[in-house]
């Protein structure tokens, strides 16, 4: 019996870097940092994915897109595993991903939450969203106002720039 | 996984199941209530914000009820538990099934719930049951945003016009008698608190009261006196409102069993 040659893990990561986020297609699932691990279990490729938000409707589409892209590259057996902990944080968005967001007109998350949990500290300190400075992705001005904490998707807030007067989305830190 | 299996042996399975149903039913019923505003909220941004909050809550419901089904071990999925149980088997707080009222009423209910929800999840992050800690860790971050938003709006509307102030005060008086239930222990709560799975509800009371009092003060609203508190939801004894919620929410699965798309 001929053994199929398994593609390298590096190749798999490369293919995954070409799977766009369905809601924000300028960034990929690897830019977002939601692919946590890739490994072989015998002849089956196991891809571990963590959800962005619990109720994000894009999650199912992302899983289908990942599976389709890998099958296109000749991997016949793929298993997707969901990992909840450690919970996804916007700190995992790559530097390249941040640049892509900014040039697409979405302000990248400004305050990390990661290990030290700044989001939670802000809430518990009752500082409110006003404590945050979000710069306009178009003109760079720091004179911006939050219009609404929730924008077109749960992961974004709506902002407005007081200098160039343009509205824009802000990718909330979580 | 080894840890989780060992834990199941130690903790009373029925108590754990009841507790998980409570968490999932709270988010399911409140998420459904919020979704009733979709297309009706007073401003587009508010409409979107409430729909997004509902989405977070329904997402969390899938995690809690999914785990409840796993713990029960009878092959019931999160969908089965959501769509195929009757009111008597729901374990949500009565607060979450209260009708929306006006927009102020919805926001007041939301703030009082969010403050409790945030503190409950904070305690659950250090649960000795790793699957519960993982869900709490995930949900905490989403709920932090819910709390930040509802608190901000309660302050703005309470300390707003004479009309908005009066409506917020009325909403507060109306909903306050439903807050006591959050801190009442059901039998399963005591079992889980002793095992280190979940904090005892009573232990969240002081911090919740401090947070509520601080926010209501900033909103220039008067905190009602603690008098009679309604309870029973955690034991399956609900107000008449839950039946109407379920009639709408479960209609499709009841009329066309197993329908999917």
TrEMBL record, chain A:
Protein name per UniProt: Phenylacetic acid degradation protein
PANTHER family: 1,2-PHENYLACETYL-COA EPOXIDASE, SUBUNIT D-RELATED, FE-S PROTEIN MATURATION AUXILIARY FACTOR YITW
Short name of one Pfam family: FeS_assembly_P
Source organism of the structure: Rhizobium meliloti (strain 1021) (Ensifer meliloti)
UniProt keywords, alphabetically: Plasmid
Top-level lineage group: Bacteria
NCBIfam families, alphabetized: PA_CoA_Oxy4
Residues covered by the PaaD zinc beta ribbon domain: 128-172
Domain MIP18 family-like: 10-71
SUPFAM superfamilies (UniProt xref): Fe-S cluster assembly (FSCA) domain-like
């Amino acid at each position: 019996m001929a053994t199929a040659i398994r593609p390298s893990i590096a190749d798999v990561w490369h293919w995954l870097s070409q799977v766009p986020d369905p809601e924000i297609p300028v960034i990929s699932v690897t830019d977002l940092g939601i692919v946590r691990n890739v490994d072989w279990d015998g002849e089956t490729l196991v891809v571990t994915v963590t959800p962005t938000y619990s109720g994000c409707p894009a999650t199912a589409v992302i899983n289908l897109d990942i599976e389709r892209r890998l099958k296109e590259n000749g991997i016949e057996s793929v298993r997707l595993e969901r990992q909840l902990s450690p919970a996804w944080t916007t700190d995992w968005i790559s530097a390249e991903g941040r640049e892509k967001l900014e040039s697409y007109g979405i302000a990248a998350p400004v305050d990390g939450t990661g290990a030290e949990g700044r989001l939670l500290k802000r809430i518990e300190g009752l500082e409110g969203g006003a404590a945050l400075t979000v710069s306009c992705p178009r003109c760079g001005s720091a004179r911006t106002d939050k219009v609404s904490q929730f924008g077109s998707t749960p992961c974004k807030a709506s902002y407005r720039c007081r200098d160039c007067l343009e509205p824009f989305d802000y990718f909330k830190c979580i | 996984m080894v840890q989780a299996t060992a834990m199941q042996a130690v903790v009373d399975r029925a108590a754990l199941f009841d507790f998980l149903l409570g968490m999932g039913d709270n988010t399911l019923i409140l998420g459904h209530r919020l979704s009733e505003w979709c297309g009706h909220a007073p401003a587009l941004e508010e409409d979107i914000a409430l729909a997004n909050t509902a989405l977070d809550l329904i997402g969390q419901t899938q995690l809690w009820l999914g785990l409840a089904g796993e713990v029960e071990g009878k092959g019931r999925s999160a969908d089965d538990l959501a769509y195929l149980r009757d009111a008597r088997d729901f374990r949500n707080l009565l607060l979450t099934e209260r009708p929306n009222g006006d927009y102020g009423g919805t926001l007041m209910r939301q703030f009082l719930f969010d403050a409790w929800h945030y503190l409950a999840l904070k305690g659950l992050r250090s649960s000795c049951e790793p699957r519960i800690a993982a869900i709490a860790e995930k949900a905490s971050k989403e709920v932090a945003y819910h709390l930040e938003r509802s608190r901000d709006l309660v302050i703005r509307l309470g300390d707003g016009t004479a009309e908005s102030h009066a409506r917020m005060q009325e909403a507060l008086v109306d909903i306050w008698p439903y807050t006591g239930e959050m801190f009442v222990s059901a039998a399963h709560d005591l079992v889980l608190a002793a095992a280190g799975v979940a904090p005892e509800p009573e232990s969240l009371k002081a911090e919740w009261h401090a947070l509520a009092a601080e926010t209501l003060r900033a909103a220039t609203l008067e905190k009602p006196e603690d008098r009679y508190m309604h309870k029973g939801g955690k034991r399956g004894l609900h107000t008449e409102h839950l039946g109407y919620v379920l009639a709408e929410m479960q209609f499709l699965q009841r009329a066309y069993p197993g329908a999917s798309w």
